[in-house]
Amino acid sequence: MVTWKPDPSFYPSPRMAMKAAPETLAYVVAFDPTRAVPDELAVVDVDPKSASYGQIVTSVAMPNVGDELHHFGWNACSSCLCPNAPHPHAERRYLVVPGLRSSRIHIIDTKPDGRRPSIVKVIEPGEVAERAGYSRPHTIHCGPEGIYVAALGNAEGKGPGGVFLMDHETFDVRGQWEMDRGPQQLSYDLWWHLGHDTLVTSEWGTPDTFENGLIPEILLGAKYGRRLHFWDLHKRKHLQTIDFGDKYQLVFELRPAHDPTKAYGFVNCVLSLEDLSSSIWVWHRDGTKWAVTKVIDIPAEPADPDLLPPMLKGFSAVPPLVTDIDLSMDDRFLYVSCWGTGDLHQYDVSDPFKPKLTGKVRIGGIVSRASHPGGKNGALNGGPQMVEISRDGRRVYFTNSLYGAIDEQFYPDGVSGWMVKLDAEPDGGIAFDEKFFVEWPKSHRPHQVRLQGGDCSSDSYCYP
Amino acid sequence: MNEFWPWMLLAGLGAFHGLNPAMGWLFAVALGVHRQSSAAVVRAVPAIALGHAASIALVAGALVVAGIFVDQGAVRMAAGGGLVAWAVWHHFFGHGRRVRIGMRTGLAGLAFWSFLMATAHGAGLMILPALMPLCLAESPLREVGGDGSAAMAMAIAAVGVHTLAMLTATSFVALAVYRWVGLEILRSAWINVDLVWTLVLLATGAVLLII
Question: Phi then psi for B19, rounded to 5 degrees?
Fold first, then answer.
């Protein structure tokens, strides 16, 4: 695996990464909600010149059933070029694909043929529990010390969840990352500011509070995650907690500025208990401390209770349910998935404190069931969910399933999977690519998308 | 000519170490682009050279001390064996370790980072063949004379020459990349110096064992 030159998909800076050639393949994890057949990694052709454009060209089945493949990542990426911990002759080659339910981690080789990847190693949950003391691996990021994995539960499936490290070449589980976790108990996403030696983590809940779906009492009691934690990336020490307050629940996806000299990032809050709105917040420096500021509020939409799932009937409204966000490589556009209403918003966040809505499409949605120009299956369910942006910012892909047990709570008829692509104008504005509508096989639901060679939520950079 | 080759070798290896991005010039450039200041690049380089010199001095000092008590043949064999072992370790496990110093570090942290990088790479070991003719006492203490002060003076001079060459190469590359070349060069010119490094360690060890 040792190479003579750095992997050509590594870029020193986000500016340079934007010049990368367009991706031709997308990797998408998809799971069977009934846990009867194995989950899959699907390879989708995203090359407009190809005869199989917009189609699944291969599906790699996992060796077991019931993994619930969720978020995944590359073994190595542009952070390998960092000057303080250089290991530039690694290859971006393996996808690290964990099962959120099974805690099993699959290592999938995308070479020699990216269209036909293969499983080369499976790390069993016992090994993760024994070596790291964690379970329910969730977020995968390649970084300064190897592969970082956020895990939602401890070895027994309770709190605290946290972060563990894996070797990016041997895939050995190296152990727990935290040396001093301070008050942190709940875990969800992780990312960092490499230029500021800071790691940030967010929260969800312990496995017993989400594996059978959201528990209304816990949600309304504000017992799900609502805090951000800031850490010293190198000393692995907890530095600061920011609590969003008991009005806010499910503070989820962390999207720090790609430019390593900038010290801010965006995070979505899925639900306000007061009015069912979703919100986007910016974390930023305030003197020697970190602070948060709410910059976007997306209100719930009034709706006929007859059209709502039991969980929402009493509210007579569709919450936007912003469950994912993604930031373009130039830190200019923030994409926001409203899984409840069916909207995908594009904001110009050149000034992160004053976002401007610059584009919007609607597809699916709890009540609207908006269709797609290329869709032949009528009213669509599910809504914009895991969103991924190409490195040059011109193409945006997303799928429609959130999490097996939660899909049915908001879409009681089940989620029929699809994946779509938007074309984005350089100065704002988005539109559906009418030729790109992947109607997913009924056996599976698609979740996260990763683009060949990297995308806007896989790499981090040490140079501006 | 015989008196000159160890000095030439020390300077040559100094330049080789200085050219390796992992030994510090890249860190200096990174600090420069983060702070948008060529002064940051210029300030970083001496700290990096100092850390490197400390790592080299450690080996040179150990060699002088060994030379006082043990005869040259034994030192040579031990050094050769050590180098080969280091090369093997470096090849198989060297890439797994990380030096946990961040991008916000000060000059002291930078010097410490450089010391750790040089030590972990076996930078001092690599210059042993050049140090030996200069720093080994004429004869060990247990035989006749030789208090090692002359050897120590030579060791200090040797570390000085190596560091000066390293400092020159590092400064030149750091400033050139920061000012004119740009970081795009990392994608094309960052060849696997670690592989070359391992081979140099191995060859140096073999030479010491064979001659």
Answer: -75, -20
